[in-house]
Amino acid sequence: MDITPFLKLMVDKGASDLFFSVGAPPCIKIEGKLAAVGQTSLKPEQLSEIAASLMNDQQRKEFEATMELNMALSVEGTGRFRVNMFRQRGHIAIVVRYLKGVIPSIEELHLPLILQTLIMELRGLILVVGSTGSGKSTTLASMIDYRNEHYRGHILTIEDPIEFIYEHKKSIVDQREVGIDTLNFDNALKNAMREAPDVILIGEIRDRNTMKHAIAYAETGHLCLSTLHANNANQTMDRIINFFPEDAKLQILQDLALNLRAIISLRLIPGINSVRVPAVEILINSPYISDLIEKGKIDEIKEAMERGREQGMQTFDQALFDLYKQGKISKENAIKYADSKNNVGLKIRLSEDKPHSGGEDLTIQPDDV
């Protein structure tokens, strides 16, 4: 079974993901919604055939040993894709993510322009968080490309696999793919500082060791960026803290208070015109936020963010209310995707209940001449 026609269909339809699973027809995801491609359910031998056609000998050995595989796939005339293979119910399953060749700008993604300021920082840790498919990788790519266009330096990325290809613009951009350019994540992380980068992008923080490296890079004067699976800034802080044993938590809070620069949280919300729009929560490590982190008062961070709009901060609920007021999302979706449905619902009701004209003509006429 040839995967190429399905990849071309993804590109033609603007799909983000392609799914192959035994017992179901192939499916593509467009604007967050799943659609079947045909009606014929896939058989185990078809999945095995597709997998065999995609893997080289080294990848085949890795998949047989771990039953998991991440790889990049380039198809001439079609595009680049990220492929994840795994096993479920004893059979192979495959998920393919389309990697758009052109890196969109921060403006084109309708992201807050404070991201342009953050990416030009000289040092610190910036985390982009959200659920799968929320736009973390694309947001990071737009930020890296902005710096690449405006600052002379060395940008180093460590990815599994490489998702976006950067051109050398004002900066030199070296991209290392795990399994191709480096044996494993750990080796690449250990050697990163010897490669004299100004900016280090880590594809994803998945464990304590990677988190320790990210903080160490920030401590030693580098700007470090990465992604994490979390829903918002508070959950991100909790996840980071829980990477570490109890006796190390005070130290990690101090490290974050000193070195965290920002947490950018993303959600893609169905828009009025059926195209999803980003709702963005932004935590910036101001002196007050730093003090809260050091004291472990994570539950007080959201209130501080709500009061920090002049510094560029905003919560999800503020972002959702703004999108509703701008006519980009419906009232129902603003409430549905909110952290506090009651608060957003109340804000919307209050905004709708403001006194308004009943339609009478209240124009002040000039004096008769």
Automatic annotation (TrEMBL):
Biased composition (Basic and acidic residues): 349-359
Pfam families on file: T2SSE (PF00437)
Taxonomy, superkingdom: Bacteria
Every Bacterial type II secretion system protein E domain range: 193-207
Region (Disordered): 349-369
PROSITE patterns per record: T2SP_E
Molecular function terms from GO: ATP binding; ATP hydrolysis activity
Family of the protein in this entry: Belongs to the GSP E family.
Name of the protein in question: PilT/PilU family type 4a pilus ATPase
Source species: Legionella israelensis
